[in-house]
């Protein structure tokens, strides 16, 4: 059982390696949907029809209350000039990894999703009435098998800690 997202961080893929993670504050929820490609060829194995599948990563929606200037400049390609934050056309796609923590029955589980790209956030703004509603921004992130982590010659897209994770790995997760 997992619940509660916290400690979101991102790390840019630059010159063949990931940079030091930076905090991404204000995350409220996240959903991950697997991207599965079904191959057109099917065949019979025994008396069962088998259709090939390929795991192509995840579609991720991250609901977040604020985006740091560092994140929008480094990941979304905005620039700053004379104290203004400027959205630019035709930004270069930047790859990053997304790190976060979820609560569990034992101790918090730490996760890392590699090879992410991000679209501009969607958001809603409403008029203030008798109550103030603060709506989170929605980031659409796609994680695929491009520049993920290779372990034992297998390309990884998502890794998570377990109760068996060495303490030094667990403690240095966000560094």
What overall form do the CA principal axes indicate? globular
Count of helices? 2
Major sheet description: 9 strands, antiparallel
The radius of gyration over CA amounts to: 19 Å
Secondary structure: helix percent: under 10%
Number of domains: 1
In N-to-C order, the SSE pattern is EEEEEHEEEEEEEEH
Ends distance? 26 Å
Residue fraction in strands: over 45%
Based on helices, strands and strand pairing, what is the structural class? mainly beta
Uncertain residue ranges? none
* Count of DSSP strands: 13
Give the rounded overall mean pLDDT: 88
Summary, kept brief:
With 175 residues, the chain is mainly β. Helix content is 6%, strand content 54%. The strands form 3 sheets. Strands 1, 2, 3, 4, 5, 8, 9, 10 and 13 form a 9-stranded antiparallel beta sheet that branches.
Polypeptide structure, described:
The chain is about 5% helix and about 55% strand. The chain has about 180 residues and is mainly beta. It has one domain (about 1-40, about 50-160). Strands 1, 2, 3, 4, 5, 8, 9, 10 and 13 form a nine-stranded antiparallel beta sheet that branches. A two-stranded antiparallel ribbon has the order 6-7. Strands 11-12 form a two-stranded antiparallel sheet. The radius of gyration is 19 Å and the shape is globular.
List keywords for this structure.
mainly beta; 6% helix; 175 residues; 13 strands; 2 helices; 9-stranded antiparallel β-sheet
Furnish the topology, listing elements before pairings.
Layout: E1 2-14, E2 17-18, E3 22-23, E4 27-45, E5 48-64, H1 69-74, E6 79-81, E7 84-86, E8 96-104, E9 109-118, E10 137-143, E11 149-151, E12 154-156, E13 158-160, H2 167-171
Antiparallel strand pairs: 1-2, 1-3, 1-8, 4-5, 5-10, 6-7, 8-9, 9-10, 9-13, 11-12
């Amino acid at each position: 059982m997992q619940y509660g997202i916290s400690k979101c961080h991102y790390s840019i893929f630059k010159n063949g390696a990931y940079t030091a993670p930076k905090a991404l504050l204000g995350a409220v929820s996240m959903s991950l949907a697997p991207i599965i490609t079904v191959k057109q060829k099917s065949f019979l194995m025994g008396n069962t029809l088998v259709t090939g599948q390929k795991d192509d990563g995840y579609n991720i929606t991250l609901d977040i209350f604020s985006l740091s200037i560092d994140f929008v400049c480094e990941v979304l390609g905005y620039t700053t000039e004379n104290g203004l934050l400027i959205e630019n056309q035709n930004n270069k796609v930047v790859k990053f990894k997304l790190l976060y923590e979820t609560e569990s029955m034992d101790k918090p589980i730490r996760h890392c999703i590699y090879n992410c790209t991000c679209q501009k956030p969607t958001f809603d703004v409403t008029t203030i009435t008798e109550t103030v509603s603060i709506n989170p921004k929605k980031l659409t992130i796609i994680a695929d098998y491009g520049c993920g982590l290779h372990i034992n010659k297998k390309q990884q897209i998502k890794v998570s800690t377990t109760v068996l994770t060495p303490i030094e790995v667990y403690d240095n997760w966000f560094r």
